[in-house]
Amino acid sequence: MDPLEQFERQICEAVTATFRQMGADTPFEIEVPSTGTADLAVPCFPLAKVLRKAPAAIAEEAASKLPPLDLVSRVWAEKGYLNFRLDDRKVNMATLGAIMEMKDSYGRGNASGLKVLLEHTSVNPTGPIHVGRARNPIIGDTLARCMRAYGYDVTTEYYVNDVGKQVVLLTWGLENIPAEDVEAIEREKADHRLVVYYQKANRMMEEDPEVARQVGLMLRRFEDGDEEVMAKVRKTAKLMLDGIIESLLTINVVIDQFTWESEFIKDGTAHNVVERLKRSEHCGEDQGACYLELKPFGIHGKETRFFFTRADGTTLYTTRDMAYHLDKFRRADRTINILGEDQKLGQAQLAIALKLLGQERSPECVFYSFVSLPEGRMSTRKGTVVYLDDLIEEAEARALEEVRKRRTDLTEERMLEIARAIGRGAVRYNIARVQPEKPLVFKWEDALNFEGNSAPFVQYAHARACSILRKAGQAASSFDPGVLTNEYELKLIRALARYPAVIREAGEKQRIQALPAYGHEVAAAFNQFYTYVPVLKGEENRDARLALVNATRIVLANVLTTLGLSAPEEM
RNA sequence: GCACACGUGGCCUAGCUUGGAUAUGGCAGCAGCCUCCUAAGCUGCAAGUCGAGGGUUCGAAUCCCUCCGUGUGCGCCA
Length: 571
Known about the structure:
Elements: H1 5-21, E1 40-43, H2 48-51, H3 55-65, E2 72-78, E3 81-86, H4 88-102, E4 115-119, H5 131-150, E5 153-160, H6 165-176, H7 190-207, H8 209-223, H9 227-250, E6 257-260, H10 263-266, H11 269-278, E7 283-286, E8 289-293, E9 305-307, H12 317-331, E10 334-340, H13 344-356, E11 364-368, E12 371-372, H14 388-406, H15 412-432, E13 440-441, H16 444-447, H17 455-472, H18 487-497, H19 499-508, H20 514-532, H21 542-562
Parallel strand pairs: 4-5, 4-10, 5-6, 10-11, 12-13
Antiparallel strand pairs: 1-3, 2-3, 7-8, 8-9
The protein binds one RNA strand of 78 nucleotides through helix 6, strand 8, helix 12, helix 13 and helix 14.
């Protein structure tokens, strides 16, 4: 239920009729002016050609010819725009009415019933998740929440890479490196305990050909389907994965299901893909290894061939990924992948190869740029990383420090609870607010920003609203929205009215960064209202203002939840 | 070399899909605001060749071309 819909509809109908009367049957836009001069505006420039008149004159004429509209309080022409001011009382009634009725489902779109399979994270189980990779679950989980809010039936999935050299190398390290040869680790979590073996094994393999030979042998046995080796590798991957899952939980990311890459080897579907690709006219062979020549499909670079088997006939990563996607297509109407920008070429090749198999569908991809450190790229192998667990720990510690400064009345447990909400939220918000494709340089001071455009800013506004409502006691059963007439009240209500449109933008157009920006806008409008408009001492306007505070609380809570943040009732 | 992405005040960032009014916010800086619902807040000031150049258009941060800078990719790796 979008409170602004009826207003837009009425204006659209009236303007269409008026333009037609003036001799123009051209399409036009209804936009929210960036200047803030009006609630809605229709630019008259596109009509200039048809009517052979200046846009300003067209706007003037339309303004004078437009019939009075009951939902609009003022119509005027300005610089070629036809401007509309909506009727305050009716906006108030429609908005507060919708929020009170829908409560925590205010903003939700109509269920489309479409099944969406959203794959995100899927990091290699060779080490703890680091800040660079953390962009993936945050974008993925936030998008999943936005799409659910918009009305899709979303399932999130993690594709576990338990095949290949990296996990085999880790497994070899665990079996062959004595504990005293790796650096001591403080954390109990398995992923942190294991990653040092992975790093050490990498160094050993580079320096010692014998190690490289042993790892190669193990990989060989794995590729040959040696049950013992496969089970061992899977066990390592599982151990690491459990640590990763635990980390994800701290930022409120829960993944619905897991698919293991090795399954596509075991069940023969990857091999089946190979057999079908071999029949393609674009298939070639180079010393036993099979490839598709993708030059005719617009693939550029030094190598335009896309190999899908090794010389020994075993499958490659992308081949198994094809089998995985064919499986996904059977399970959902839409498939979305959240991927690092390094996967772009691979995904392009995958899409072409799927087409060559006669598959019409290809996955929709959201690519994000890597997060780097000021001193350069993050690498698990080299150990030049900031782990998510460390970032969260630091964020919570800083938040706790702030809570202690402000609140001396709370129990230790309650302070910890609030600090967790703030610290974890700040990390998610700071990543979600930036467009995925923008490069991001990780800086502690930005990641731990607790003021301005940040999670705590939005959470704080929510806590303030809760505080007023707590002190007010029982809410009045009825109120008159018409008494909310000062600039702060009107601005706040207009912000609340936009929420369904924001969910549509974030969920349908997959622009999740619109949601943090909106949360900031509502919180800022509320903070101004809070500063200048008394609520509890609001005299005859008290009931209506309490209703507005409650409506704001509901919208802020919805925004926070959809961003995967908690909405603390006190801070 | 080729391909893809990004470039917006000192720093970070919105707007670009679908061209339209005075380019959105934040951080840092400066100056103010707590006898009153939590100052993680509010108000004001200062700060911009929207990477550069050209083109399309009545109109370009937005579309097209060229160039520059940065990142990513171009494995019988995953």
